[in-house]
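Task 17 of the worksheet. Students: predict the tertiary structure of the chain below and write it out as structure tokens. Keep your answer in the requested format; marks are given for formatting as well as content.
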Amino acid sequence: MPQSTPTNLSKRRILATTTALLLLAGLVLAAEPVKPKVVEEFSGKVVGVTDGDTIKVLVNRKTVTVRLEGIDAPELGQSFGRKAKEALAKFVTGKIVTVKKTGNDKYGRTLVIVIVDGTDVNARLVEDGWAWHYKMYNSDERLAKLEVAAREAKRGLWADEAPLAPWDFRARQQALLAVPDEVKSQYWLNTSSGVRHNRSCEWFQKTKRGRFCGPNEGKPCGICGG
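Model answer:
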């Protein structure tokens, strides 16, 4: 059996070292957060705030509706939806903003990063607890860290014991539309508290949090008598 020569050993060590370095580089690249690339930049005056993550900007006498990249604010019909809209409005209403377009979402809406007075509004809303980091479509590590910090400090919507993510709220709304009328007459159970509500209850109307149940399940709501 031929013995390894010093030259062969050196080559093996070099090959092993090179392979290890390539693997390490691959891990580093894989861990690097993918930040949205800016494809266009323009300025305009904010003339409207639709909700907590959508605004209208007047650009060259034309109103452009844009959605903030990387975040998802509560819907107006759920808890903290109005407050999230107010928080965004406080930053941008009537102001000249710099809009950095990153692309379009699956609905064709323009996605942007909004800068006003040197502040990244997208990031600030997450930092202040008025929006989630939209991890499903954005992997910016900075936004992820800001969300964690806001949650731990219970800022904004994180003051709620069990905040409902807007994508879950939308999914439940869609599911509700598909429920047969005979099922809709049933009660709605708040699975976090075990309290049963009927469909006219203010809690049910605002949150839709929980699931359908029978009238003999859960504790009746003291307000709606469910």
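Marker's comment: The domain at 40-159 is CATH 2.40.50.90 (OB fold (Dihydrolipoamide Acetyltransferase, E2P)). The mean pLDDT is 83.
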